[in-house]
Amino acid sequence: MIKLIECPRDAMQGIPNFIDTAIKAAYINQLLEIGFDTIDFGSFVSPKAIPQMRDTAEVLELLDLHQSRSKLLAIVANTRGANDALLFPQIDYLGFPLSISETFQQRNTNASIAQALETVEEIQNLCEVKGKTLVTYLSMGFGNPYGDPYSPELVAEFVQKLDQLGVKIISLSDTIGSASPELITQLFEIQIPAFPHIEFGAHLHSRKEDIAAKVKAGIGAGCSRFDGALNGFGGCPMAKDELVGNMATERMIETLEGLGHDLGLNKAELNEAMKLTSFVFNQ
Prior knowledge:
The chain has one domain (3-280): Alpha-Beta Barrel (TIM Barrel). The chain has eleven helices and nine strands. The chain has helices at 8-12, 21-31, 56-61, 79-85, 102-109, 113-130, 152-164, 181-194, 211-220, 249-258, 267-280; strands at 3-6, 38-44, 71-76, 93-99, 133-139, 169-174, 199-206, 225-228, 245-246. Strands 8-1-2-3-4-5-6-7-9 form a nine-stranded mixed β-sheet. Belongs to the HMG-CoA lyase family.
């Protein structure tokens, strides 16, 4: 079964002008009508670091979850954020960004990789106690621009460490949009057979014309969990390329359905959400 994770949090977080809390909630409520597996809806991080997400708790209280099959995921960057997120029973998943790049880990969470791994262990233990699931994102999972060490073998070493901590979902993340279909195939063909008890996902950034090839590469290598954002909004500012955003969910849907996958989505509600994006993101 294919799992689509819609990521309004990732789409919104880099927008400098604050999006009104009610608008955020209305947009996410529309996404909840579509039938995505999970909505990455917000983050419990420092408001100084990500000002756009300072109202995540308020947004959560405005969400209507009663008729939705979608689960909620919140990003956290430390144990304090995890404890804040765990106060809300509506949240199913906590997401933590663990980088293969030492430079990016410092920039992203102000911690070393060694410290971040300790945090992963702490959050994993908290999730087990609270009945939640930790999703660990291996950022810079397809290379980095800093000259830090990178190889498919290094990715495997990180996966092994996370497996030892009991992490059950790992999303390989292409933070700067550099992953080729060939590398996507290689990484998933290495990891998925070696760790059959782990659910692997793909959080990729891409130009729109490259999305179909990347989805096909992931599917062909056994990946069945894909993150995206409608219209491809969001992405990594460090990419320094406005054409490289999140994987456009509508393009992924088109590709997956073309491959014969029934995603069980409500297309009428999807069309309504697509109409809202221009208003929400002021494009």
